[in-house]
Amino acid sequence: AFVKPIKSGEVWFERMLWGYLIYLLFATTIHPWYIVFPFGLSILTKNSFMIGWTFLIMLSYGFYSFENALISNGLILLEYSGLLILILLDLTYRKKQHFLQRFLKL
């Protein structure tokens, strides 16, 4: 991750965000409060997908609410599918305009 020299604080925060995101994606258990740190980092960068994940992470509580494994695994699948879509949208529109500015037309 640190092949190129870091020239600004925003680049440093962005690399920390991606590193922590990769860690979370490979973790076996992610509690909703685990994304507080990357959410704070995303505020300091142009990455806005973490804002969406803060809403989607609440679907992980469905794992504890439903005894049916099909429903709880479906909620987790929905959460991570939504996260993947948010990451792809963020990476696609980042060059042109901040994703939230384009989405909310600010």
Topology:
Blueprint: H1 9-26, H2 36-43, H3 49-56, H4 62-65, H5 69-93, H6 99-104
Helix-strand pattern, N to C?
Answer: HHHHHH
Estimate percent helicity. Answer: 55-70%
CA radius of gyration is: 15 Å
Q: What's the β-strand tally?
A: 0
- Alpha-carbon distance between the termini? 32 Å
Class by alpha and beta content: mainly alpha
List segments where confidence is low: pLDDT < 50 over at least 5 consecutive residues: none
Largest sheet: none
Quick take:
The chain is mainly alpha-helical. Helix content is 65%, strand content 0%.
Structure overview:
Helix 1 packs antiparallel against helix 2 and helix 2 packs antiparallel against helix 3. The protein starts with 8 loop residues before the first helix and ends with a helix. The model has no long low-confidence stretch (mean pLDDT 80). Helix content is 65%, strand content 0%. The chain is mainly α. The chain is elongated and about 50 Å long. The protein has six helices and no strands.
Give me some keywords for this one.
106 residues, elongated, 6 helices, single chain, 65% helix, mainly alpha
